[in-house]
Design a protein that fits this description.
By secondary structure, the chain is mainly α. It has one domain. It is built from six helices and two strands. Helix 1 packs antiparallel against helix 4 and helix 5 runs antiparallel to helix 6.
Length: 135
């Protein structure tokens, strides 16, 4: 028997809003600063992982569009689980390409792991089944 878990609806909303922010900003930056983002990937130690998937400029534009669309969906709570899955699918290759190679500065990698944890919360839990608890 699974025990009922009581979680504040407001805390779930705040988690969704704060996690979505990084994807909205990053998605916007990918589309506005395509060249800069491509150069950052080209300088990454594991750039081969990204180039395996295709043309870097195309990938930057595609990831920007996906992060904006899924980030907005996640922000407003529309198809939250699916948006979280898509965002995690974008976060993983970005983390491998950019952060894993920067072993001397683990902060950005662990930031991405924390973001992944927030996304996994929404992927693994049926938010609608939480018992409503007011703060």
């Amino acid at each position: 028997m699974t025990p009922n878990i009581s979680v504040s609806r407001r805390s779930i909303q705040l988690l969704r809003i704060t996690v979505s922010g990084i994807f909205l900003v990053a998605g916007f930056n990918h589309l506005v600063e395509i060249e800069k983002t491509v150069k950052r990937i080209e300088m990454a130690q594991f750039k081969g992982f990204a180039t395996f998937f295709g043309n870097l400029e195309f990938l930057v534009i595609l990831s920007g569009i996906v992060m904006l669309a899924a980030g907005l969906s996640f922000l407003i709570g529309f198809k939250t689980r699916w948006a979280a899955i898509v965002l995690l699918a974008v976060l993983i290759p970005i983390s491998i390409t950019i952060q894993v190679g920067q072993i001397t500065s683990l902060g950005p990698l662990f930031k991405n792991l924390a973001i992944a944890g927030g996304l996994l919360f929404f992927i693994l839990n049926d938010i609608k089944s939480f018992k409503k608890q007011e703060p």
